[in-house]
Q: What sequence folds into this?
């Protein structure tokens, strides 16, 4: 019996130990918070109107869909989660929730989320949400994560769909604005996760996940981080340049982008074999601030435009 088999065997009788917080942990609440923010932003920027009650139900549906994706991800990855120090205390490898219970939980939430969104807004948005769940759980988690060092590049699309889903919930379709929001998250994902992978190199190596630093080496990863950052920053400014964001966003996106590039360049210049990897850790931490700040400001401007008289903002 292998170590991973032992973890699964020991976890099976422990389902009675599960508490509500363990099922909440399956939803990946920190990831869900970003999904909710970006989906609300997409909804707020979309032209047209949606009844407040239906808007709340739509956002709740998207949040549940994100949680379902997280639960399915933890179900499938419970074997490697048991080995990695960063994830060993998750509910399944820690033996607090049974794998089959987590799978059922994720599937039920997926059906609930898609059905609710279809009934509350429209079935195009619901279909896009269903595809997002499928993309993350099947294409990324089951297909890409353990097979290619480009897992984060392609799989990052799953995390980039929520603003498009929010936009579609209001309009019933997609537009250039929602595509730009998608691209911001899509291009942000590789430098964000590769920075993490650089100082979690041993964790990913211990379970055979081919993250770019493990396959191509630190130097190639640092170069890729910097190149993606060079593309990300102008795309992050694009909402202002295209006219669907205001001057506050314009100034903030330039300043935040300059700081992102500063951290990316410091990571690029980081010497080989640097055990502390402080530049990569700083980039990872700032990348979270960067993305949250952009979408909070976009949302704030959208709310301001809706509340202030025409032409005041």
A:
């Amino acid at each position: 019996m292998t170590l991973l088999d032992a973890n699964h065997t020991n976890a099976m009788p422990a389902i009675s130990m599960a508490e509500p917080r363990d099922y909440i942990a399956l939803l990946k609440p920190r990831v869900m918070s970003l999904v909710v923010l970006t989906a609300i932003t997409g909804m707020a920027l979309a032209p047209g109107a949606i009844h407040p009650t239906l808007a709340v139900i739509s956002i709740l549906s998207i949040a549940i869909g994100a949680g379902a994706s997280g639960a399915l991800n933890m179900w499938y990855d419970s074997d490697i989660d048991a080995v990695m120090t960063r994830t060993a205390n998750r509910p399944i490898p820690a033996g607090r929730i049974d794998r089959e219970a987590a799978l059922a939980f994720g599937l039920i939430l997926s059906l609930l989320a898609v059905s609710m969104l279809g009934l509350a807004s429209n079935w195009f948005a619901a279909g896009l949400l269903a595809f997002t769940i499928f993309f993350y759980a099947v294409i990324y988690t089951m297909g890409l994560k353990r097979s290619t060092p480009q897992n984060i590049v392609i799989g990052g699309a799953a995390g980039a769909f929520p603003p498009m889903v929010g936009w579609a919930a209001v309009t019933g379709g997609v537009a250039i604005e929602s595509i730009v929001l998608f691209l911001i998250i899509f291009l942000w994902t590789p430098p964000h996760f590769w920075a993490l992978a650089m100082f979690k190199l041993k964790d990913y190596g211990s379970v055979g996940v081919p993250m770019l630093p493990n396959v191509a080496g630190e130097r190639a990863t640092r170069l890729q981080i910097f190149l993606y950052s060079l593309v990300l920053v102008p795309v992050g400014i694009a909402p202002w340049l295209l006219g669907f964001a205001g001057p506050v966003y314009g100034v903030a996106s330039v300043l935040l982008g300059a700081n992102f590039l500063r951290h990316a360049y410091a990571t690029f210049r980081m010497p080989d074999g640097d055990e502390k990897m402080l530049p990569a850790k700083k980039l990872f931490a700032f990348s979270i601030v960067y993305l949250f700040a952009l979408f909070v400001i976009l949302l704030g401007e959208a709310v301001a435009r809706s509340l202030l008289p025409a032409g005041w903002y």
User: Anything to note?
Assistant: The chain has two domains: 1-173, 175-313. Residues 1-16 have pLDDT under 50 and may be disordered. Residues 175-313 form one domain.
